[in-house]
Amino acid sequence: MKVKVKFFAALHQMMGTRELDLEVAEGLTVAELHRDLCVRFPRLADYGDNLLFSVNAEYVPADHPLRDGDEVAFIPPVSGGAHAH
Amino acid sequence: MLIRITPDALDPQPFIAHVRRDEAGAIALFLGVVRNNSQGRRVLHLEYDAYPEMAEKKLREVAEEITSRWPITDIAIAHRTGRLEIGETSLLVVVSSPHRQEAFAACHHAVNRIKEVVPIWKKEVWQGGASWVEGEGERQATLQPE
């Protein structure tokens, strides 16, 4: 099945791409997809695992199983608004 | 309810007009503004990246949560994306309600929730480098020259 993975902010910069279209195994979870991509892209592994997962623009737990056509994002800690403090 | 993610400058007036009601005696407006310094460093400008579809959805959820918790008459939220110069508005929240206490409380809570759940990220650019800010004050170690 096919999924799309989107990268934002620091992850976009590290990956050098905004999105990837991938062929993955049926029933793969988002955390497994992240682990697989860390093997393929060591830069992603370097980033670490301080991330949340989203599927189709909604936060999901790590064990969320993917379905064909899903849009996945790895979400770094957010920092909207004007200032961190 | 009005929600916007936009690369364009944020003018508060249309948002204030949107929430204004004859029965609302209070309008609270919050503007998040780009500051010229961060942790002792002089900031040149900021860049905001967003997951637009999800950010819009999460802003709407925050607005709905606020509307269900406080007796407000209306709420509008806007967040800017892209490059922002010092003094420009990155976040706008405006709430109208019959009385001022609810407007202040709802506006305050909305700003806090936005900073927790909305997938928008800020990059600080200063002389000789830049870094993505992650979470409340956490800073990613990698710095790269601009």
Compile the SSE list and pairings:
The complex is a heterodimer of chains A (85) and B (146).
Chain A: E1 2-6, H1 9-15, E2 19-23, H2 30-40, H3 42-47, E3 52-55, E4 58-60, E5 71-75
Parallel strand pairs in A: 1-5
Antiparallel strand pairs in A: 1-2, 3-4, 3-5
Chain B: E1 2-6, H1 12-19, E2 26-33, E3 37-38, E4 41-50, H2 52-69, E5 74-80, E6 82-85, E7 89-97, H3 100-117, E8 120-126, E9 129-134, E10 138-139
Parallel strand pairs in B: 1-5
Antiparallel strand pairs in B: 2-7, 3-4, 4-6, 4-8, 5-7, 8-9, 9-10
Helix pairs in contact in B: 2-3
Explain what you see.
The complex is a heterodimer of chains A (85) and B (146). Chain A has 85 residues and is α+β, with helices and mostly antiparallel strands. Chain A has one domain (2-75): Beta-grasp domain (Ubiquitin-like (UB roll)), CATH 3.10.20. Helices cover 28% and strands 26% of the residues of chain A. Chain A has a five-stranded mixed beta sheet with strand order 2-1-5-3-4, with helices on one face. The longest helix of chain A has 11 residues, at 30-40. In chain B, the strands form two sheets. In chain B, strands 3, 4, 6, 8, 9 and 10 form a six-stranded antiparallel beta sheet that branches. In chain B, strands 1-5-7-2 form a four-stranded mixed beta sheet, with helices on both faces. With 146 residues, chain B is an alpha+beta fold. Chain A binds chain B through residues 6, 8-10, 12-14, 50, 54, 57-59, 73, 75-85, and chain B through 32-35, 38, 48-51, 53-55, 57, 79, 90-91, 111, 114-123, 132-138, 140, 142, 144.
